[in-house]
Amino acid sequence: MLGAERYYILREAGTERPFTSALLNEHRRGIFSCAGCARPLFSSATKFESGTGWPSFWKTLPGSVSTRADHSLLMERTEVLCERCGGHLGHVFDDGPRPTGLRYCMNGLALNFQTA
Fold first, then answer.
1. d(CA 37, CA 3)
2. How far is the CA of 67 from the CAs of 4, 15, 26, 70, 80, in angstroms?
3. Is the pTM of this model over 0.85?
4. What is the mean pLDDT of each run of 10 residues along the chain (116 residues)?
5. Which domains does the chain have, with CATH numbers?
6. Rg of the chain taking only CA atoms, in angstroms
7. Neighbours of 3 (CB within 10 A)
8. Cα–Cα distance for residue pair 15/78, rounded to 1 Å
9. Among 34, 37, 82, 105, the one annotated catalytic
10. Helix (H) or strand (E) holding 32
C-alpha cells in the first residue's frame, strides 16, 4: 500500500536523496502527517529552510512522535518515529532555530501534506 520507496523509508529506516522531495518547497499553511498512518505530525508554522535538502521543522505536534538512539552510521543520532505506527520519519538534531533549537530533518516521502 505504501509503494516501494515509502516502504523503504518508513518500515526499513531508509533515507531519500536530498533535494528530491516535493515537500521541500511546500510553503502553504497546513499540516504534515505520517504517510504510513495519517497521524498529524508537524504544523507548517514550524517548517523552516535548513539548507540540508530535507523538509525541516523546529517543533512537532504534541504526542505525535517518539525518538530513539540510532548508531547506524557509526555515530550517535536521534531517530524520529511516528508515535502511532512506528514509521521512520528522519532524525532530530540540536542545531535548529529558536525557540526550540531543534531541527527535525524529515524524509519527505514519510510525510503527506494537507492545506489548512
1. 14
2. 24, 16, 25, 9, 5
3. yes
4. 95 97 97 98 98 98 97 90 98 97 98 96
5. 4-115 (2.170.150.20)
6. 13
7. 9
8. 14
9. 105
10. strand 30-34
Using an 8 Å Cβ cutoff, are 31 and 116 in contact?
yes
pLDDT tens profile 57-85:
999 999 999 999 999 877 899 999 999 99
Q: What is the distance between the alpha carbons of residues 97 and 58, in angstroms, rounded to a whole number?
A: 7
37 a catalytic residue? no
Cell numbers 497521524: residue: 39
Name, in order, each residue with C-beta under 8 angstroms of 95's C-beta and a sequence gap of 6 or more.
101, 103
